[in-house]
Design goal:
Blueprint lengths: L4 E3 L13 E2 L10 E5 L7 E5 L4 E6 L4 H15 L5 H11 L4 E3 L13 H9 L6
Parallel strand pairs: 1-6, 2-6
Antiparallel strand pairs: 3-4, 4-5
Length: 129
């Protein structure tokens, strides 16, 4: 069975599966892009790049577009040459493991907009000679 992403929960009695690894904040694998309430009457969301604290855009309150954007920011960031050591560490520590994060799981057949999905791809990518 291939590794999967598991949504972390606060439900009474819920426990992280033993072999899984939490990759949210404050771990070294967390996404520097944060999704925050915009604070306006429309209830929108802001994506903030926490490495510099700057907001990079606003999205509707349903969160889907904000999660998609934050995930693509993470994908772009972690694939930069200066993040090679983090990608290598992910391959060593996360390969074959399920990953847990707070992001909601997608509806069946829909793409999974979560940085843990990006980490699963990186950690379990076949090595090229």
């Amino acid at each position: 069975m291939s590794p999967a992403r598991i949504q972390r929960r606060r439900t009474k009695g819920w426990r992280k599966p033993e072999w899984s690894v939490y990759v949210g904040r404050p771990t070294r694998f967390s996404n520097p892009a944060r999704i925050l309430p915009a604070g306006d009457i429309n209830g929108g969301l802001i994506v903030q790049w926490s490495l510099n604290g700057m907001p990079v855009g606003t999205w509707p309150a349903d969160g889907l577009d904000a999660r998609r954007y934050a995930t693509e920011l993470y994908r772009s960031w972690i694939n930069q040459p200066e993040q090679e050591s983090l990608r290598n560490l992910a391959r060593v520590l996360l390969r074959g493991r399920d990953l847990t994060c707070w992001c909601p799981l997608p509806a069946p057949g829909q793409p999974d907009h979560c940085h843990a999905t990006v980490l699963l791809e990186i950690a379990n990518r076949e090595e090229t000679p």
